[in-house]
Amino acid sequence: MLKKLALLAAASAALSLACHASLSPFMAYHRGPERSNANNVVGTRFTAAADASITHLGFYDAHGDGLLSSHRVALFDLATGQASATATIPAGNETLYSYACRWVKLDTPVPIEAGKTYLIAAEVFAGGDPFLNSDPNALATVFAPYVSGDAIPAWGPLGSEISQPPNLLGSSHYHRSYLAGNFATTVETSAQTISVQPEQRYQTIESIGSSTGWNMEWLGKHWPESTREEIAKLLYSKDMDENGNPLGVGFSLIRFYIGAGTFEQGEASQIVDPNRRTEGYLNDDGTYDWSKQAGVQWFLRKAWDYGVEKKTAFSVSPPVQMTKNGLGHLSEGQTRVTNLKEDAYDEFANFLSTVMKHYQDEGLPFDYLSPLNEPNYNWNGNTQEGSYWSQENTARVTQELDLAFNRDGVSTQIILDEAPQYDYALTGSHGNPGNLPALFSPDSPSYVGNLSKVAPQFAAHSYWTYYNNQQLIELREAIREQTEALGLSFRQTEYSLLGIDKITEDTPDSYTDIALFHAKVLQADLVAANAVSWAFWSTVGPERYGHKNRFALIRIEPPEGELDLRIPGTYAAHKSLWTLGNFSRFVRPGYRRIELGNADDPSGLFGSAFLSPDERKLVVVMMNMSYQEKPTRIDLSGTAFAKAKVYLTDRERDLRFLGQVSATEQIALPPRSISTFVYDASPWAQWVETYLGDQAAENQSYDADPDRDQASNLFEYATGTHPLLPDNASRVYSVQRNPTWSLQLNPEASDLILEIFTSSDLENWSASGHRLYRGEQTWSIESDSLSIVEQITGENSDIVTLELNPDQQKFYRLSVSPVE
């Protein structure tokens, strides 16, 4: 069976095919300006190089966001002047999208013959959907095997029918080739088998998230609470909507920026962009003002409310009161100078310890603190806070901070040293050795690995390390090898898309292209560097200079014409949030990465797999970075996993729940997409598959009652009754009837909490500390007044009889809840 994920309308339809057919187009992406300046019919003449069978006609849709209008497309046989095939490509985005075109399948394949001349043409409209014109020589590899000789453009008036081919243009126009209409043949391809290998295990994931850097302060302080709540839900919620789609990406990490006090300096800070100045807790008289950074504190507390598992704090510069030049960065022209005053190392450590202890006492302890950020850079410009640190000075401030944490009883661990790029961490910069061996090799003069508060982890940023796929993988493998050799785990603590002006060769980078690139870097950090934690840099930000979503996950914009982010405006989730959500929402803290074979191509199928701590859930994250649909089979032989929920992000969908696939089904991964498969081997999941597998999704939830007998699925599961057969089982028992109460219980429901609640009036119920447990063979109860007097083991359920207290005129009720 082949699961077609590529088409929204057929997202859950299964096709009975032994192998899969993918498209081979006449024209794919190529360079050239877009045009939409006339009402015409445009096309390209070609001579067929080989026999072929045309199965689809299409129209150009470079950005994948759908067509503004419908377009008639025709393939002409120039020997007869008649159209051999015609189709209307409808407006919108419901048709198959591949190779930058929208496609319609022909009812009957149309042959083209080697040596014959044809013309592919389509109608275009002024001000409507654009088309491309380009140098046909650049298309030689794209045209093959369809073209021999030159490709010649055609142009003609738009009529009521496309019945005759448009006129061929003269030789002066041969430098052009028009991509408006397109055709494709069907190529049979077998599925690529991806093997899940649970016996081969790697790192345990701690967290995935983003930082509060810069803009979240203004958002959290000045924008309406309703907007902040909506953005917090996008970032941290783990809930689903009524259709099973995630409401948020469930980040498990918040990375908290400790400001240096440049905001209070205003223009005297010399930081040009006021949005990049930060408030500082330290006053000039040495006291602390904990009301500062109220915006990021709002998001920190909201992350706690959502149950975000890991909290990391980081400092970019010492407070301006402690720096040599009184600024949060080096002065212009200064080079490789540590800006902290020579006599302020202990003072800076005390400041950081005080901040950590404050939040610890507030009930908001941080797991980690990074005292330095990108220490290799000079930070002598006027763009942001920053501080250079030599390795010797890094060790010195770390030693002081270790003393301060131990003295003050701070539970936070120190992570080092946030090198800005992996090669700096490995081999060094500016004549210094690599940050990693300098700080963690025992024979180094700057060794700090023996300090009690220093975590056995190395942190670095993945900027500037992805110029090609070879560098993407090899640098990360080197990070993994060095950290493992030193007994350390690895954290990727900051990334956004710096350094590459263009990530696709032939078309403008789309929002989806950039979002997939972000996810590819995350995937590489997980599978090649063995990262245990991963963080994006700027969670929210404005869109400037055509950068699109390179530097933010959520776009925030003040009103038109304004640049000050303190003025509330609009927001929208970028596609990047959702591609990262394919990981963060499902790869939870404590999940262990396992081997995924035959999915290691960053330009094709690129994947990873993870097991939950109880090994009842398996998460597979598959990226299809190619421009073709990829038929795939995930081999789960030797495991207990039978069915997966599928969540897809591509040009048209944002972490969309597509339904379920079985372990035996082949899956067509859409082009330029990321899919997450969540397999569940829990007793509950197996029970649902057994009894409700053919039911609609709304009948499979905990609270559903498909047989309408007033017992939810969860209660039927707990008591071993059938969810589709009504019965009269009651949850409530009166001690007045009999001093014993016999309960029917499912011995396989080990993922439930079973509690006995009591009441004297049937209205007010209280938990009385009575809990039932199923051991390997028998049941037991945790209670000071109830006891089990008999157990009878059945085929699908057990009968457990409780002795009650007849002196207490009470009602008893069985309460059932899932183990979280």
Could you explain the architecture of this structure?
- This protein has 820 residues and is of the alpha+beta class.
- The chain has 14 helices and 43 strands.
- The strands form eight sheets. It has an eleven-stranded mixed sheet.
- Helix 11 (511-527) links the parallel strand 23 (489-494) and strand 24.
- The chain is globular.
- The model is unreliable at 1-20, 136-145 and 169-175 (pLDDT under 50).
Summed up:
This protein has 820 residues and is α+β, with helices and mostly antiparallel strands.
Q: What is the number of strand segments?
A: 43
Largest sheet: 11 strands, mixed
Number of helical runs?
A: 14
Helix content: 10-25%
What order do the helices and strands come in, and which of them pair?
Elements (H helix, E strand, L loop, with lengths): L1 E3 L9 E2 L4 E6 L8 E2 L4 E8 L4 E9 L10 E7 L4 E8 L6 E3 L2 E12 L4 E8 L6 E4 L5 H4 L8 E6 L19 E3 L1 E9 L2 E13 L2 E5 L3 H8 L2 H12 L16 E6 L3 H4 L28 H12 L4 E6 L29 H17 L6 E3 L20 H18 L4 E7 L2 H6 L7 H6 L13 E8 L7 H17 L3 E6 L16 H17 L3 E8 L1 E2 L12 E4 L12 E4 L1 H10 L7 E6 L7 E7 L5 E8 L5 E6 L7 E7 L6 E7 L3 E4 L3 E8 L2 H10 L20 H7 L12 E3 L5 E6 L6 E8 L6 E9 L4 E4 L4 E7 L4 E6 L7 E8 L2
Parallel strand pairs: 1-34, 16-31, 17-18, 17-24, 18-19, 19-20, 20-21, 21-22, 22-23, 23-24, 25-26
Antiparallel strand pairs: 1-2, 3-15, 4-12, 5-11, 5-13, 6-10, 6-15, 7-8, 7-11, 9-10, 12-14, 16-28, 26-27, 28-29, 29-30, 30-35, 31-34, 32-33, 32-35, 36-43, 37-42, 38-39, 38-43, 39-40, 41-42
Helix pairs in contact: 2-5, 6-7, 11-12
